[in-house]
Amino acid sequence: MEFLWGVLSSLAASLLVAGAAWSGSQRLRSRLISWLSRWTGAGVLQTYPSQSMANSALIADLRKAKWVCAFTSRGNELTRDSFAGLWQRHSGNVPVRVLLPDPSTSGTGTWLDQREHEVSEHDHAFRAGLLGRQIDANLDYLRAHVAGRPDVEVRLYDFPHLARVIATDRVAYLTVYSAREHGRNSPCVVFQQPSPMYDFCLRVFDVAWGQAKSSPTSH
Question: Which CATH number is associated with domain 43-214?
Answer without folding.
Answer: 3.30.870.10
